[in-house]
UniProtKB/TrEMBL annotation:
Name of one Pfam family that matches: DAO
Any one annotated GO CC term: cytoplasm
Alphabetically ordered keywords of this record: Cytoplasm, FAD, Flavoprotein, FMN, Nucleotide-binding, Oxidoreductase
Name of this chain's protein: Sarcosine oxidase subunit beta
Organism ancestry: Bacteria, Pseudomonadati, Pseudomonadota, Alphaproteobacteria, Hyphomicrobiales
PROSITE patterns hit by this protein: RHODANESE_3
Length: 416
């Protein structure tokens, strides 16, 4: 069924009783060409592009919970391509371009909203760093503007410009950045993959990886053994545990990141704003809730919830940037498990096991990468060749000394 204004009209005439489920609930087949572990944004996008771009449809996505129950449905929905380094910039710009045509492409309303993003700076040194990043972006053809304090004030007058310690001096502005409704991304990619014949198998946890003569032959799951020719891991915060099933020790640590939403307010925050004096970021959802977050909790954990110390720290940062925030009530908070890589950049690569493919290390920036990640991972799986925009995202870069250290903070997950 194609969604359109006509279909809404037609279904309304029959009392909206004829809508079909967005995807099937198939039983697992004994064998697939490709199995993808993880029904998050990246796994579903990979399945979608495998089917749509490369004609590979004998594919299963195995998800231990329900589709979108992981980070894809837990993030703060920010998309952008404001990266400095060659290893990142073309990749994230490719992703932003895919976001721009996504809803038409997969025929689903994902509420892509390019409302612009302001990265605030608070010192001369930080301004120079942002000017450099902006120049790097423009060299790659990505939009970037350096705004002074008054230009920022016109866009966001509610910010604390005269903060005694961190006065706002200006911002790096990316107009095409914004937000996307996160769970609709999972649903849209899932529906698009299902329509093309991919089996989306929910409540099916992978508990083991079976190998013969060095190659993967299938996976043990809570619903029995399922064979495959190729196995692709897109398990985000669970990458290390799934990798260990194939004896892979990966340069990944799992950490918790929390997010918060306030009660619904009238429109006030028109953009995505990031605080340069901390790691606080905020936007306003279409329902009116202020959606915000800050740093990861400072310890490794696989729990999808965080600690109160980080709650307090996030609120302090928020109120320091927007004093009026102290008047809003927080409605909900939640956590997700992040696959933190040692240089803060992701991995899309083959592994030492020939038919085992790896997609991980997204830290807390993987949502915006979902389209490009899915496209490049599908390209790798289908052709056994790396897509050129993800060519730096290699697993062996840590051994070779070619890290992609965007934040310049070294191999310290808690600093990324
Ligand atoms: C609070 C928070 C805020 C964030 N904010 C942003 C943001 O604003 N912008 C941005 O770009 N990124 C953001 N991120 C990061 C982003 O959400 C992640 O990097 C991205 O979603 C990870 O990819 P995914 O969608 O495939 O992960 P997930 O949705 O986590 O998918 C992985 C799936 O694998 C499944 N799985 C794991 N193990 C197994 C197994 N053994 N068998 C079967 N299934 C398994 C899990 O259940 C899960 O559904 C944020 C993350 C969090 C938690």
């Amino acid at each position: 069924m194609r969604y359109s204004a006509y279909s809404i009209f037609k279904e309304a005439l029959s009392g909206n009783r004829m809508w079909k489920p967005a995807w099937r609930e198939p039983q697992p087949k004994p064998h697939y060409d490709v199995i993808i572990v993880g029904g998050g944004g990246h796994g579903l996008a990979t399945a979608y592009y495998l089917a749509k771009e490369f004609g590979i449809t004998n594919v299963a996505v195995l998800e231990k919970g329900y589709l979108g129950s992981g980070n894809v449905g837990r993030n703060t929905t920010i998309i952008r391509s404001n990266y400095l380094l060659e290893g990142n910039n073309p990749f994230y710009e490719f992703s932003l371009k895919l976001w721009e045509g996504l809803e038409r492409d997969f025929n689903y309303n994902a509420m892509v909203s390019q409302r612009g993003m302001l990265n605030l700076f608070h010192s001369d040194g930080q301004r120079d760093a942002y000017a450099r990043k902006g120049n790097g972006m423009r060299i790659h053809g990505v939009d970037a503007e350096l705004l002074d304090r008054e230009q920022v004030r016109r866009k966001a007058p509610y910010l604390n410009f005269d903060h005694a310690r961190f006065p706002i001096m200006g911002a790096l502005y990316q107009k095409r950045a914004g937000t996307v409704r996160h769970d609709a991304v999972a649903w849209g990619y899932g529906r698009g993959a299902d329509t093309r014949g991919v089996d989306l198998i929910q409540h099916c946890e992978v508990t083991g990886i079976r190998r013969e003569n060095g190659l993967v032959v299938g996976v043990e799951t809570t619903r029995g053994f399922i064979g495959c020719n190729k196995l692709a891991l897109a398990a985000a915060g669970n990458t290390t545990t799934v990798g260990r099933m194939a004896d892979l020790e990966l340069p990944i640590e799992t950490h918790v990141l929390q997010a918060f939403v306030s009660e619904g307010l009238k429109p006030v925050v028109d953009h995505v704003i990031t605080y340069g004096a901390g790691h606080f970021y905020i936007s306003q959802s279409d329902k009116g809730g202020l959606v915000f977050g800050a740093e990861i909790d400072f310890y490794s954990s696989y729990a999808q919830r965080g600690n109160l110390q980080t709650v307090e720290h996030t609120m302090e940062e928020g109120v320091s940037l927007i004093p009026g925030l102290s008047r809003a009530k927080v409605l909900r908070s939640w956590g997700g498990v992040m696959d933190m890589s040692m240089d803060g950049s992701p991995i899309i690569d083959r592994t030492p096991i020939d038919n085992l493919y790896l997609n991980c290390g997204w830290c807390y920036g993987g949502f915006k990468a979902t389209p490009a990640s899915g496209f490049c991972f599908a390209h790798l799986i289908a052709k056994n060749e790396t897509h050129h925009v993800s060519r730096f995202m290699r697993l062996d870069r840590f051994e070779r000394g070619y890290t992609i250290d965007e934040a310049g903070r070294g191999p310290q997950p808690n600093l990324h």
